[in-house]
Amino acid sequence: MYYLIANPTAGRGRSKNSIPSVQEFFIKNNLELKTFITNAPKHATELANSLEDNATIIALGGDGTVHEVATAIVNTNKTMGIIPAGSGDDLAFALDIPRNNIQAALTIIKNNKSKFIDTGQVNGETFVNSFGVGFDADVAYNIVNAPKFLKEKSAYLYAIFATLGKLKNIAVKVEVDDQVVFNDKSLLVSIQNGPRTGGSFLFAPEAKVDSGSFQVLIAANIKRHEVPFILPKLINGKHLSNPKISIYNGKNISLSWQKERPGHMEGEMFAASSKFDITILPRSLKVISP
């Protein structure tokens, strides 16, 4: 038995339109499927929690849906499959699950090869692909509030320029495995379990979700006029040559900001704080992958 948890609003409707194709695939392949449709934030977590201990749960949606399902099944015997149908789909990217190709994603699920990947915790809350504070968190907030007619990259571009209009660099102390690696004004700090964030930006090209450690990206005191020149390099992972950008590996991260700042996990907003403690949970999530 497979359980489909589908978020009909993910991808601005793309997920909802994919449900019939998913159900048809399971019927044609004589696989039993029970479908659940989410109707509120954190509903996917509730549904995943309610299923039996060895359930195989398919998340149909974006990184927010994946995040909600993963939150429920970390350190359990449950397994998560992914059909990417959101605006970002960054964990699917990290697992080599193709976007915009439902049949390919379904074939991966049918083949049922699984592995364990790492997850993280920040102030006691679970994340899977990334946690960030600063510019990228502000972009995540503006994406939520982008005009509904904007899709995927257009929505991200809108959010980026909306964020640039209020750009501020705030002082932060960053500790990686009990060593202070940065103590100055910063545009953003991103803790990467996977390589990509925001659906397009390769913050940490070498990050692996099963490496047992995070990659910590720190963008120092970058001015507004510099950001448009850095963004294209972020898309192809060529930004690390910039002297204002550094990256570190570590398992336990502490961020101490001069003032309270909101964060994001997988693009979902995280409550503002001046202190974030992040730790890795090795091999804590079982996923279906190619």
Your description of this structure?
The protein is built from 8 helices and 14 strands. The chain has 2 domains: 111 residues, 3-Layer(aba) Sandwich (Rossmann fold); 158 residues, Tumour Suppressor Smad4 (Sandwich), CATH 2.60.200. Strands 1, 2, 3, 4, 5, 6, 7, 8, 9, 10, 11, 12, 13 and 14 form a 14-stranded mixed sheet that branches. 44% of the residues are buried. It is α+β, with helices and mostly antiparallel strands and 290 residues long. Helix 2 packs parallel to helix 3 and helix 6 crosses helix 7. It is globular, with a radius of gyration of 19 Å. Helices cover 28% and strands 37% of the residues.
Write the layout of secondary structure elements.
Elements: E1 2-6, H1 14-28, E2 33-37, H2 43-50, E3 56-61, H3 63-73, E4 79-84, H4 90-94, H5 102-111, E5 114-122, E6 125-127, E7 130-134, H6 135-144, H7 152-164, E8 170-176, E9 179-186, E10 188-192, E11 214-219, H8 227-236, E12 245-250, E13 252-265, E14 268-288
Helix pairs in contact: 2-3, 6-7
Quick synopsis:
Helices cover 28% and strands 37% of the residues. The chain has 290 residues and is an alpha+beta fold.
Mean pLDDT: 93
Question: Major sheet: size, sense and barrel closure?
Answer: 14 strands, mixed
Number of domains: 2
User: Which CATH top level class of the largest domain fits?
Assistant: Mainly Beta
Helical percentage: 25-40%
Quickly give the structural class: alpha+beta
The CATH topology label of the largest domain is Tumour Suppressor Smad4
| Beta content | 35-45%
What is the overall number of helices? 8
Q: What is the string of helix and strand elements?
A: EHEHEHEHHEEEHHEEEEHEEE
Task: State the shape.
Answer: globular
* Tally of strands: 14
